[in-house]
């Protein structure tokens, strides 16, 4: 019996990147870019964190440095942040994931400045997954 009857090639789901917290955004970016040859995709800031997305082929890593007051320094227990999945339709993926045991953390919202729709859910163990689709595919 196949435990995963859905063919990911048919669904269009692509693992985009893994996000990790870092204590020194520039130093970590230099490590991945200069030390390992990752390419810079983009840098951005939100009220809660500053981030850099780097790519090695289609695989990526998002380095996140929280900016919130009172946030603790990263350690090995809290450095993993989320897995990012590119999906054809973030809202549909959210509905399906919740039907199979996921919990919506943040609803899918269109971000015109990014050109993307983004929502966050937790898997049954509480690990965060960010669902991302291009605006217009909702």
What does this protein look like?
18% of the residues lie in helices and 44% in strands. The chain is an alpha+beta fold and 138 residues long. 22% of the residues are buried.
Number of helices: 3
Low-confidence stretches: none
Mean pLDDT: 84
Strand order of the largest sheet: 2-3-4-1-5-8-7-6
Strand content range: 35-45%
Main β-sheet, in a few words?
8 strands, mixed
Give a quick precis of the structure.
The chain has 138 residues and is α+β, with helices and mostly antiparallel strands. Helix content is 18%, strand content 44%. The longest helix has 11 residues, at 25-35.
Q: How does the SSE layout of this entry go?
A:
Blueprint: H1 8-11, E1 14-21, H2 25-35, E2 39-45, E3 49-56, E4 59-66, E5 80-86, H3 90-99, E6 103-111, E7 116-122, E8 128-134
Parallel strand pairs: 1-4, 5-8
Antiparallel strand pairs: 1-5, 2-3, 3-4, 6-7, 7-8
Attribute tags:
138 residues, alpha+beta, eight-stranded mixed beta sheet, 8 strands, 44% strand, globular
